[in-house]
Design brief:
Two copies of one chain form a homodimer. By secondary structure, chain A is mainly alpha-helical. Chain A folds into two domains: 110 residues, Glutaredoxin, CATH 3.40.30; 113 residues, Glutathione S-transferase Yfyf (Class Pi), Chain A, domain 2 (Up-down Bundle), CATH 1.20.1050.10. In chain A, helix 6 runs antiparallel to helix 8 and helix 6 packs parallel to helix 9.
């Protein structure tokens, strides 16, 4: 359990000062909690596309919080201290105000949105949220996961073979599936600015994070997917991609 | 677009009559909408574990609505009429009151929970929902998806090869991954009644639906996973498994 250090808090900016109207009050409440020595949310962060997606999501919403870097390359995320935070050994993990831990990036982003609804990056209505969740899961299951495992079981095998169950012979097939589903998605993007139409959402952040990662590990986007290529360039203009 | 038939409505039970207190009023509003000939939600349903998970979720919540069966075996879900509902060609799909369509089972269940919060099968607070979403995604990515694709690319290949991109050589490895992650999960279940502790949630329904399917298609649960086996028997007592 990590308790907040009031002395350290004073030296930091308030986490929600930069947010839109309505967040100032909660920012002050948050500061009060800090000064009373109570816990605050904290992100256990690392290299890799999953933490990056959460950081992009937070940047788009103007959320700041303390971060602690876990040495993914050195395997710190598979050691006892992090396994107490996330028994699945993955990154990132969010520590909540009550000291409990939350993993899985979609669950983390949903939680951050519930606690800080504005600006809505999942949706402001049940229908908007439904649309974003539908597209996020399509990207998650059909593109991100086969792309990621295609890498883990292929170029990343030496790194991952002692960390997760690996099936090297599945790597080419999984890459083929991700590429095939991107081709399908390209057709869907013909008339869309973003996955949810005019709204830039978690679904776009998710896809961007994985496509950007893919381009670095031997799975670049086929430029024949011209609608996605245009969308990728559009999203790449956003300041949040640097998060 | 499907408009509701008021004559047919009169012969049916009201969808929320069986719900807990507080739903009666919405039930009456719903009936009023029906009598005015407005649209109502409708589930495009079929055989298979995904629609079954949504039906179980609805049964646990006491939600009833009109259903239309799509002939999955005959490939109706891959034909133009269903592709208008879900361009990804999968089942199930929910038609919303405004005539739009929603796919992906987690998005459908989240939407149903938002519209009918009680009894909560995802969660009644942001923290409860976060915990359920975390477990649901762990099951989804690490167990359900490799189990499903292990089947689609293996025993189900003849059926699926003209429907989705298939990688037959990946089948054994994907089954190994699902089995490995079930072994991990068994350790996590040692002190738990359900995935979210005392709460029976969507995460359990999700896992149950896929394990039950696995047992029918050559991926039975290894009985050495004794905690999951006990949990499976416990969940199997619930009336909703017949939905």
């Amino acid at each position: 359990m990590v308790f907040f250090d009031p002395a350290g808090a004073a030296a930091q900016s308030h986490p929600f000062d930069k947010g839109p109207d309505g967040l100032l009050k909660s920012s002050r409440q948050h500061l009060l909690q800090r000064n009373l020595g109570e816990r605050t949310m904290k992100l256990y962060d690392s290299i890799g596309p999953n933490p990056r997606i959460v950081r992009m999501f937070m940047a788009e919403k103007g959320i700041e919080m303390p971060k602690q870097t876990v040495d993914l390359r050195g395997g710190e995320n598979r050691q006892a201290e992090h396994l107490k935070r996330n028994p699945h050994g993955q990154m990132p993990t969010l520590e909540l105000d009550d000291g409990s831990y939350l993993s899985e990036i979609t669950a983390i982003c949903e939680y951050l949105e519930e606690k800080n609804p504005t600006p809505a990056m999942i949706g402001a209505t049940p229908e908007e949220r439904a649309e974003c969740r539908m597209w996020t899961r399509r990207v998650d299951l059909n593109i991100a996961e086969p792309l990621a495992n295609g890498f883990r079981f292929g170029e990343g095998l030496k790194f991952f073979q002692n960390r997760v169950p690996c099936a090297p012979e599945a790597s080419p097939g999984l890459k083929m599936i991700a590429a095939n589903r991107l081709q399908w998605l390209d057709g869907q993007m013909a008339d869309r600015e973003y996955l949810c139409g005019k709204r830039f959402t978690l679904a776009d952040i998710f896809l961007y994070g994985w496509l950007d990662f893919g381009s670095q590990v031997g799975q670049p986007l086929d430029p024949a997917n011209s609608h996605i290529a245009a969308w990728f360039a559009r999203v790449g203009q956003r300041p949040s991609v640097k998060a």
